[in-house]
Design goal:
Number of domains: 2
Largest sheet: 7 strands, mixed
CATH superfamily of the largest domain: Type I PLP-dependent aspartate aminotransferase-like (Major domain)
Structural class: alpha/beta
Pfam family, one: Aminotran_1_2
CATH architecture of the largest domain: 3-Layer(aba) Sandwich
CATH topology of the largest domain: Aspartate Aminotransferase, domain 2
Cofactor: pyridoxal 5'-phosphate
InterPro entries: Aminotransferase_I/II_large (IPR004839), HisP_aminotrans (IPR005861), HistidinolP_aminotransfase (IPR050106), PyrdxlP-dep_Trfase (IPR015424), PyrdxlP-dep_Trfase_major (IPR015421), PyrdxlP-dep_Trfase_small (IPR015422)
Helix content: 25-40%
Keywords: Aminotransferase, Pyridoxal phosphate, Transferase
Strand order of the largest sheet: 2-8-7-6-5-3-4
GO molecular function, one term: histidinol-phosphate transaminase activity
Length: about 375
């Protein structure tokens, strides 16, 4: 007799993790949108100081980190939720809001964890196709909102397409969303966008208690291995809801200490953004020399369609190119696992890694 699991286990899709683990050092890891830069020395020192106290549990409320975030963003600490990465807050919010009979609206292709929300809760997920520029179609998303809608997600900049919308368009959209709907503006990559000041969306929180801004220390701060994210909320209710859902002590002492110290170094954030913009330009020009036009990126990665001959299968071409890149020591993300076969997503690495990617792709396409 076998163990019987709940039906939702079968519904939940397996996260398409990148093949970037247990590999030799001489590999260009361009598959996971990580920072190519390690944590700052001051951040490492802050983590080291905490290590001697690991026999104690971390502060379950993350009081010091929430105070630091409050000072940085001007949002009251009671309206800031912490998480073991931003995904922790996202999944807890889905569990708090969604249930059978409820509806969830999001764009597609978008972040591959969003389908987990509907699968785990039994809610009806409504995927709205991106427009011809691979941007969110906000009017189409509005048209899908009903009395049953509990949550609508806008990923800006969007993963995996790297595209972003100006804040003015998003602000107009938020004004039109009914007050009974929770609006999640997923801004994991917002620091990389040059369309608006990354802090401009904070003003929207004052007017919209149903708005949540989701952010992370995994990208621009280079703390992906520590898993610490946060949500800035228009009211305290979402914070109270997600804290009831999750296990206690969800954000480690080391993660909290690192995040607090990282916030003190906004000059490093600016330098890393500049580095990403340079890589964005150089990689974009390199792809165009190969006859490939990437989507307009406002993130730390590019999204592009591979050249596919008439009658060829995009999925087969994608698999061949991904395999060829891996054989040349370059790891990227296959588009099929992210919602669109025949496309690739490549993160920005060090200049030598970016050059290695372009040389490898040129070699493969030339062959």
């Amino acid at each position: 007799m076998t163990i019987e699991y709940s039906q939702r286990v079968a519904r939940i899709p397996v996260y398409p993790a990148a093949a970037a683990y247990n590999l030799p050092e001489d590999v260009a890891h361009l598959a996971s949108n990580e920072s190519p830069d390690p944590p700052l020395p001051e951040v490492v020192e802050a983590m080291d100081r905490v290590l001697r106290g690991l026999h104690r549990y971390p502060d379950p409320k993350g009081s010091a980190l929430r105070s630091a975030l409050s000072a940085r963003y001007g949002v009251p600490a009671e309206r800031i939720a912490l998480g073991n990465g931003s995904c922790d807050v996202l999944l807890a919010l889905g569990e708090a809001l969604l249930e059978p009979g409820a509806e969830l609206v999001y764009a597609w292709p978008s972040f591959s964890v969003y389908p987990h929300l509907e699968a785990a809760s039994g809610a009806r997920g409504i995927r709205v196709p991106l427009n011809e520029r691979d941007e969110h179609d906000l009017d189409a998303m509005l048209a899908e909102i009903t009395a049953a809608t509990r949550l609508v997600i806008v990923n800006n900049p969007n993963n995996p397409t790297a595209t972003a919308l100006p804040l003015a368009e998003i602000a107009t959209f938020i004004e039109r969303v009914p007050a009974h709907v929770c609006i999640l503006l997923d801004e994991a990559y917002i620091e990389f966008s040059t369309l608006d000041d990354p802090d401009a969306s904070l003003d929207l929180l004052r007017a919209h208690p149903n708005l949540i801004l989701l952010r992370t220390f995994s990208k621009i701060y280079g703390l992906a291995g520590l898993r610490v994210g946060f949500a800035l909320c228009g009211s305290a209710e979402p914070v109270q809801a997600v804290d009831r859902i999750r296990q206690p002590f969800f954000c480690s002492s080391v993660a909290q200490a690192a995040a607090i110290e990282a916030l003190r170094h906004q000059d490093a954030v600016a330098a890393r953004v500049e580095q990403a913009v340079i890589a964005r330009v150089e990689l974009g020009e390199g792809l165009r020399e190969l006859g490939i036009e990437p989507a307009d990126s406002q993130a730390n990665f590019l999204w592009f369609a591979l050249p596919v001959a008439d009658g060829a299968d995009p999925a087969t071409v994608e698999a061949e190119v991904v395999r060829g890149l891996a054989e040349r020591g370059v790891l990227v993300r296959a588009g099929g696992a992210l919602g669109r076969a025949g496309w690739l997503r490549v993160s920005f690495g060090k200049p030598t890694e970016n050059a290695r990617f372009l040389a490898a792709l040129r070699d493969i396409l030339g062959a």
